[in-house]
Amino acid sequence: MTTPAPTRSRAAAIHRWIRYGFLIWACLSLSWLANSVRTRGVAEELLASDGEVTVVDGPTSLELHPREARSDTALLFFCGSGIHPHAYAPLLRPIADAGYPVFVVKLPYRLAPLASHKEEALGRARRLTAAHPEIVRWVIAGHSLGGALAARLARTERGLDAAFVLIGTTHPREADLSGLGAPFTKVYATNDGIAPADRVLASARRLPEATRWVAIEGGNHSQFGHYGHQLLDGEATISREAQQALTREVLLDALREGGE
User: Fold this and answer.
1) Is 186 strand, coil or helix?
2) 37-256 domain in CATH 3.30.470.20?
């Protein structure tokens, strides 16, 4: 009796090519995703010290220190998941130019994928605030996952004199922050496919009644920073610069409310 070796060989070859195809697809998909969050279009001078602002790019934070701070209020900003802090320089450098210190918290492994990584990001924020006792009031903001982390900090650091600006995020989802006395602002883009407007607005019952809501008409998720177009995001109908200018003005409003 003969063994159907050619048939088994063909089946093995087919399975092998299926595995190869899957690996190629996985590699291409990961490459595309990595490229989609790659920092783009950020001028080198935005990340360089000059006569007005000192830039400190450390292992856990990117700091922009005005030579002459105009008040005792500063901005603490959490990055979105996978987004390099440099991608937010066009949004945030003008705030430092206006005289407000800016501290950007770097997420562990850029993604903060595990609960322990998110706790470490919160720990980095706490260490930054503790290291700067000259800052009396903070505006704590974040984009996407960064907004979720800012909301978590609001829940746990109730003794901190702070206002909170949550940008492009559906959080808080579970925690009820409606009883907090801190000022909150929620910024969302109407063409955001990652944090759609209806899901953003659904968090209203978990936020203080006095929360300020700012809709950026025609904006999307990706244009809050300077990087590529994220998977599932909508198409923006306004420019990245216009979207960030509107967002920046919200952050400056929150900083000015602390007094000049």
Assistant:
1) strand
2) no
